[in-house]
């Protein structure tokens, strides 16, 4: 018998939370793995339907979870509109590459952004993969450092691709600050002859 309930106490970083039955009763533990593959990640207040179950220790859990309005056995379609995060990150990398080809931007800028974006994307991907597994996570400070150094376009794409860190407001504030600082620093380096000459000499060695 399926039961309807509301998501409460959802921890998106760890991928679990609880569901409070609409008809009353004890709340049940719900894990992200109980949702269909490809389903949107839940947030507090989401209405779901589920099959009551129990784990090995006899605790109440939710199995075969579906978001309200989601048909059984049908994976939800992705959004039809462009993905802002992917678009912003991709367009920035494209602009850096085209700027280099046109001679407006030094090669170290495009190469640096591309390489660091790969590193940042891998860090986000690994952190997402181990989330909730008990394995050591990538510290947020490390993710921010990679973004600050120039990996933020890749980090932005990875956030959307892996559905990771997108709903944590404190992380997003710091992320956009690191992106702004990085762009400002690179822009300053490009207009300051002394800094530009020093970077060019380092790349040429």
UniProtKB/TrEMBL annotation:
Gene3D superfamilies reported in the protein's UniProt record: Nucleic acid-binding proteins
A single BP term in Gene Ontology: regulation of mRNA stability
GO molecular function, one term: mRNA 3'-UTR binding
UniProt entry keywords in alphabetical sequence: Membrane, Phosphoprotein, Transmembrane, Transmembrane helix
Transmembrane segments: 86-104, 110-127, 173-191
Record-level GO cellular component terms: cytosol
Signal sequence coordinates: none
Protein biosynthesis among keywords: no
Protein name, per record: Cold shock protein CspA
Organism this protein belongs to: Aquisphaera giovannonii
Higher taxonomy: Bacteria, Pseudomonadati, Planctomycetota, Planctomycetia, Isosphaerales
